[in-house]
Structures are given as C-alpha cells and as structure tokens.
Amino acid sequence: MAEGGIRCTVNGQEARFEAGPERTLLQALREELGLTGTKDGCSSGDCGACVVIMDGQPVNACMVLAPQAEGARIRTVEGLAAAGGLHPLQRAFGETWAFQCGFCTPGMLMSCVALLEANDRPSRDDILTAIAGNFCRCTGYQAVVKAVQQAAAEMRGGEGPA
Amino acid sequence: MSEMSYMAPERLEDALAAKAEHGAHARVVAGATDLILRMRDGVLRPDLLIDLRRLALDAIELDGDALRLGAYATHGQLLADPLVAAHLPALRQACSEFAGPPIRNRGTLGGNLVNASPAADLVPPLLAYDACVILDSADGRRELPLAAFFTGPGQTVLRPDEILTEVRLPLPPAGTGAEFIKLGQRRSMAISVVSVAARLSLGAAGEVQVARIALGAVAPTVVRAAAAEEALQGHAPDAGRLRAAAGLAGGAATPISDPRASREYRARMVPVLVRRALEAAWSASREAAAHG
Questions:
Q1: How far is residue B274's CA from residue B183's CA, in Å, rounded to a whole number?
Q2: Are the CB atoms for B108 and B71 separated by under 8 Å?
Q3: Which of these, A50, B53, B106, B217, could form a disulfide with B119 (CB 3.0-4.6 Å)?
Q4: Number of A:B CB contacts under 8 A?
Q5: 3-state SS string over B132-150?
Q6: What does the pLDDT look like over B175-229, one tens digit per residue?
Q7: B97-137: pLDDT as tens digits
Q8: Min CA distance, A40 vs chain B (Å)?
Q9: How many angstroms separate the most distant Cα atoms in chain B?
Q10: What kind of fold does domain B176-291 have according to CATH?
C-alpha cells in the first residue's frame, strides 16, 4: 500500500494520502486531509467523537487502520452541508440546542445521519440505540432525540413529529 | 517505531502463506478494534499485519443442517442476519448488547474469539449452541469444538501459522429455546461483569434432551456449568428444578475481583442470572416445541 498512497473517496471526492498501518483513519483525516471536524476524544473506540460513515455504516475512525480505508467511501461531518445550506439534522441540532460544548456533535451527527438514512421514522429507542456509542458529557441526550425526530419529520416532508 | 508492513491479500492461500512464513511476528487484522489498542499500548509489536478484508470471509449461511458463520462477519452483520435471528437468538442478543453501533460495525466474530477475553460476549451463546471453530493453515484445516479453543485469558490453541476462518454450529433442533443475559454497568459500551447463556432443547414429552449453560467473566475462560446441565438432562423442568440447577452453576465459577466488580458480587450473581436465563430458555423452548 506504500506505493502511491491510500486512495479512497471522502465526501464524494477522490482523496489520496500517505499513512502506514501504525496510523488510523482518524489521524489520516485530521492530519493528512485537514478534515478536523472529526474529533479525537479517546482514541480507544469508547467515546464516539470520531464517528464517520464508512461504506454506509457509522464507525469509529480511531478504530480503522489507515490502510483499511483503501477503496472505501468515507463521509465526515464536513460533507453534511450541501450547497443549499446545512443538513436538516444540523439545523435541528441548532434549533433544539442539542449540544453545549459541541465536541461530541460531529460524531453524534454522523451516527444519527446513518440512522435516518436507514430509518425515516425512528422511535425514541431506535435513536438511543443509534447513539449508544456516542458520549455527551454536557447536554445529555434528550435534546438529541428531539433533534433527530424533528429532522426525520422534516426529511419525510413536513409532517409533525412521529 | 520500526517499520511495520501491511498486506490485504485477495486469496486465503496468500494470507496463510504469509502467516506460515512470519508466524507470531505477523498479526491477523479483522475489525482491528482490539489490535489498534494493543499496538498503541506496545503490548503487540507485529512486523506484518495481514488484513482479511478482501477474503470474503463474512458469509453467514445454512449448509445442510449446519450454520456457517464467516469469521470476518461483524457483530452488526450477525445482528441483522435473518438466519441468526431465526436459529441463534441468544447469539443475536449478545450482539445487540455488544459495545455500540460503530464498534459493532467493525468488530468481528473471529476477533472476539481470538482475543479470548474471559468476558467475550459472543462466547457464552456460541458454547451454548455447541459451536466449532475452523482453523486454517498452509498445512491444512483443523476443526475444534469451541470449548477446546480457549486455554486462559487471551490464550488459545491457535498456532502461529493458523487463521480462524469460520465458526460452524449444528442447526438447533426443534423445541430449542435459548437466552443470553449480560450484566454490565451500563446497557451499552460496557464490559460484562457476568454474562450467562442458557440453551434447552426439549423432547416430545417436554423432557430436556440438551441443556447448555455457559458463564462469562467468572473464570479464566468462559466455562460451561456441567453440574447444572446434568441436573436438567432427561427431566421435564419446573421452576424448582431450574432453581436447583441454577444453584449448582455457581460451582463452575471461580471469579476474581477487578475494577468492574468484586469476586463476591460475581459469585452471588451467577445463580441469579442462570435461573433467569433458564426460565427464559425454558419458556422459549416450550413455545418453539408447540409451534415446531
């Protein structure tokens, strides 16, 4: 893998970086690609601050060896906002105050986006399960549940909450 | 740090040849969720990493009267699989309580076994379902009962030239019910304090034809509670018999104190959790027998 570096798709764009197996996808994203939206909380797979979507599934970027990203489709928090503005979930997080310090927010968003893409009408339990690997140490989780339900309703087309 | 090599071969033969050549200096990579921590902490310093990701070792399929689970299948794949849901509900339950979704999407079945933690969540249900492991090497293939695989905390009989490629289980007979109960400090992202899997397969007269009880995190390896199993064998259970069997299960536990719980607490919890698991398994087995 050393020759030519590691190639993958990050937020829809071809990306290429040099990183050996002693480095993680998290380090590659932050240090090689400059995508510092993905946070480094514990580097141990415990806190979820580094959750990204890899080939459609939420994963801890700190628990992926950099070379394992070869050929993968990676989405980070930087890829959520489209030309038209913030992702509905990002807006809902703002409107419901689903964060205080914001450190857990990128990981929370990516876990919840993966949920919404698989399930457009998530129950409270579905949401709590989806964020079971994302630790928030200031606001708590109630506002996150509210934000996800608000975004889900908006994404379904303007109905009220489920 | 010395230069570490990495390969992700496309053929199992190439992975096995590399393992034969480099032995213990080469480490197999599956989900990497334990490996990354151990390399960072300096516990493991492999010269070569052999990544299994291109080998398509994640199939979950029915093969005659056996279920074959590829060692590279993640906890998330097992959790979502209809065959696992239909035939191995206790394994599914263990997957659902394992860490959180992002780790479940990386951590694999084979990794959970090879790491050989006494608290490994998938091991009690797999023991209860009489699982075997398939170990491949350039020299050939071995098939071992899972119960013979573990020798101590972090220790297995896997040779340095071998790779665990598959877990195989007999299809549980009609009239089978099983339950997994994990006692942890939280519902998610917690290492088990005590875990229990129980499986009962009932005969036509409601008698126990097969009883399996496996205990996690209370001994150097996950252990079967043989005396409790024997107390159930051949009898039609009732609440009293299940409680008596659960009492015997404590004999198989030799727990230690660690930051998660004391020895005494673990010992007290074993009969309680075994009784609950047996009651649930019995109820599920009667329901399965009635509808089977």
A1: 11
A2: yes
A3: B217
A4: 83
A5: EEEEEECCEEEEEEHHHCE
A6: 999 999 999 988 888 999 999 999 999 999 999 999 999 999 999 999 999 999 9
A7: 999 999 999 999 999 999 999 999 999 999 999 999 999 99
A8: 15
A9: 65
A10: Enolase-like; domain 1 (3.30.390)
**Residue B140 region by backbone torsions, left for phi larger than 0, else alpha for psi between -120 and 50, else beta:** left
Strand partners, A158: none
Q: What distance in Å separates residue B61's CA from the closest CA in chain A?
A: 22
CB-CB neighbors (< 8 A) of A111 in chain B: 101-102
In B216-252, which positions are buried (b, 16+ CB within 10 angstroms) versus exposed (e)?
Answer: bbbbebbbbbeebbebbeeeebeeebbeebbbbbbeb
Where do the domains of chain B lie? 5-51, 60-170, 176-291
Asked whether this complex has an ipTM greater than 0.90, the answer is yes
Task: Give the CATH architecture of domain A88-156.
Answer: Orthogonal Bundle (1.10)
For residue range A33-43, what is the model confidence (pLDDT) as tens digits? 999 999 999 99
Residue A95 at interface with chain B, using a CB cutoff of 8 Å: no
Q: Which two tokens stand for residue A137?
A: 């140490």
Look at the alpha carbons of A142, A145, A146, A147 in this order and tell me if their dihedral is positive or negative: positive
Of the candidates A97, A130, A87, A132, the one whose C-alpha atom is nearest the C-alpha of residue A111 is A130
In degrees, rounded to 5, the angle at the alpha carbon of residue A81 between the alpha carbons of residues A79 and A86 is 155
> Of the candidates B139, B131, B129, which has an alpha carbon nearest to the alpha carbon of residue B163?
B139
Amino acid at the residue A135: F
Residue A67 and residue B4 in contact, taking contact as beta carbons nearer than 8 Å = no
